[in-house]
Amino acid sequence: MGKFGKSEKLTSGENVAVDESYVRESILNPQAKITAGYPPIMPTFKGLVTEDQLLQLVAYIKSLKMDGQAKP
Hints:
Layout: E1 7-9, E2 15-17, H1 20-28, H2 51-63
Antiparallel strand pairs: 1-2
Helix pairs in contact: 1-2
């Protein structure tokens, strides 16, 4: 992934900052903002993850570098 902190183009043509809010929304309501070039196939995880698990997922995504390797 490695896109946290960057900007992503959506199918709507708008750009959105890849921040905690965007990642959280994408996990809970993935159809809300579809990234350009990707089909809308991600399922929702709403009701399947706890708040703590959601925070852990966001923290993990923040830790990824562009090459896909975790930061030291």
